[in-house]
């Protein structure tokens, strides 16, 4: 029997990324409040939020300073936009702060309200830039299988997951996907990480040559693949890929929507992984998820092109009502102030060895084929057979079952396609809370193993 609130949910809400058929039976998990790394449901049950919401609540759930920053801005000037040259001080100050932090040559910042919008903006800017440079045929975008870049039409076209394409008439023409850099799953027998990286770079080069380098505008990659499986790249991967991109003048977009702002123990994930992109998309942890905000960095040559077009057409024709919402900018400024004052990024680097050691230990569990990660992000791959790396029938929903058992243990984690489980807690998690998280996850894996045996799954 669903509770009153749960029954009303089922009757009224379409949930993103939810099995809407089983949801009618199981109903929602309704959360009511949060404190530190914990969230509480309507019965007052606490859960460790082992996913930081959706990879975003970096500073945890009860940060009064963020609340006060939002309240003060709402009281003073709840809304003004950035169209037609209008501006506001939190927007200006945040752009200055981000320009300072960006590890790529940055002339200006363009704000959006989400990661999908940031990546859609990147596609449009790559096209726009090549039009400005007088090479209108250079427009194709290369992304990666299992990459995740959002759900709007262009960002979903870059996302490399079947569920975002089948039945949606996507990807759009001109969006291509190169191989996923998951060594455990896709390397050949005996292939080293370096050799695997070089093979993927060679495959990317072959794709660019097949398409014609004069038609390829940009390549997009997350530092650590998030929704595609919490996949860390193999050694030498970005160095090998970047050599190819440089050879064919292909713009490199880093999707730092998950890894930006501390996740890997560096301000941006690319800094930990040898990435040298031309531009960065960011969102999520910038406001600790308290209010929506995203954006992209704009380098000087691109800005020059925007200036030229403005002179010709009278304006730069892109932006949304909430691009650079003042409340979001105020919360982001406070988030970065707290990051700096409290040494959040260094704190992640300090806690990472403990987190990664507990994660790596899970690879000893009988149903875990691989446990991998960096900083405070990690993923598990559930397998039916460790030696052959064979997986269970996807229809059995083993990872989903594990996530449900974890919820029963008071832990929120997320299952991803391909029987993967992701862990990505708030960056402020304490060492004893890391232990509690992995103790609960271990119990969930034990229960999953017992369930598999009871079902007779092979
Ligand atoms: N890029 C990455 C790497 C993401 O993880 C996500 C969201 N999970 C997005 C883009 C899309 O962001 P949003 O959901 O805010 O549109």
Provide tags for this entry:
458 residues, alpha/beta, Aspartate Aminotransferase, domain 1, Aspartate Aminotransferase, domain 2, 2 domains, 16 helices, 15 strands, 42% helix, globular, binds 4'-deoxy-4'-aminopyridoxal-5'-phosphate, transferase, pyridoxal phosphate, transaminase activity, Aminotrans_3, Putrescine--pyruvate aminotransferase
Q: What structural class is derived from the secondary structure elements? A: alpha/beta
Bound molecules: 4'-deoxy-4'-aminopyridoxal-5'-phosphate
* Name of the CATH superfamily of the largest domain: Type I PLP-dependent aspartate aminotransferase-like (Major domain)
Q: Give the % helix.
A: 40-55%
The largest sheet has its strands arranged as: 4-10-9-8-7-5-6
Number of structurally distinct domains: 2
* Helix run count: 16
- Which spans have pLDDT < 50 for at least 5 consecutive residues? none
According to CATH, what is the topology of the largest domain?
Answer: Aspartate Aminotransferase, domain 2
Can you identify the CATH class of the largest domain? Alpha Beta
Q: Which of globular, elongated, flat, extended, rod-shaped describes the shape? A: globular
Mean pLDDT: 97
N-C termini distance? 33 Å
Report the β-strand fraction as a percent range.
15-25%
How many β strands by DSSP? 15
Oligomer: single chain
CATH architecture assignment name of the largest domain: 3-Layer(aba) Sandwich
GO molecular function: transaminase activity
Family: Belongs to the class-III pyridoxal-phosphate-dependent aminotransferase family.
Organism: Methylobacterium trifolii
Keywords: Aminotransferase, Pyridoxal phosphate, Transferase
